[in-house]
Amino acid sequence: MSFEHPSSPLWLNNFVFEKPLKERKIEVIKISSFKPAVPKRVLLFVAAIVWTFAGSMLLYKGFKMLDTTSIYLWLQLMLTLIGGIVFFWKMFSKISRKHTNRILNLKEARPCLFSFFNFRSYLLMALMITMGITLRRTGWVAPNHLAFLYLTMSVPLLLSSVRFYYTGIYYNRYFVAENQDK
């Protein structure tokens, strides 16, 4: 091996770099590689956990504010349960079905972790959280009435989460049936 002067390009190519500069490939990191992509089945479980968490928080806050000394406590709880079931039947069952179908019909096999809601639903969720906190902190609504509202809203959220859990557990049935129809 002959020694060449360090300023020689051949010396730089052989000893400093493994390949000549023209042959080196620059690796480009795409921004999409940072996307928290998950399978659709996982996305269904993420949605179920979020809806369960929201319903559980409302249930906890509602029971915490509930006037347990009321002689009509059982009547209030029954009305809360009936109101929550009606609210689920009239509105939340359609919303949860829409979100479940949207997740199942996403074009990507591994969508983003946060795509269990669309943008409009995130805005609606932020508005509802803001309204709940505002009503609780300002005292515009009496705590026992707010407890009734919180408990009523917890029922459809928890019932809706059951749809996501069910679809996630039986995902293969839905996925196979969806692909056979096409």
Average pLDDT, all residues: 83
Q: Give the biggest sheet.
A: none
Contiguous uncertain segments of 5+ residues: 11-17
Q: Can you give the helix content as a percent range? A: 55-70%
Query: Structurally, how many domains make up the residues?
Result: 1
Radius of gyration of CA atoms, rounded to a whole number: 28 Å
Q: So what's the overall shape?
A: elongated
- The number of helical elements comes to 6
- The arrangement of helices and strands along the chain is HHHHHH
**Alpha-beta content class:** mainly alpha
Secondary structure tally: strands: 0
Distance between the termini: 67 Å
As a percent range, the share of strand residues is under 5%
Describe the model:
This protein has 182 residues and is mostly helical. It has one domain (36-181). It has helices spanning 9-16, 40-65, 73-104, 119-138, 143-169, 171-181. α2 runs antiparallel to α5 (143-169) and α3 (73-104) packs parallel to α5. The longest helix is centred in the middle third of the chain and has 32 residues, at 73-104. The termini are far apart. Residues 11-17 have low confidence and may be disordered.
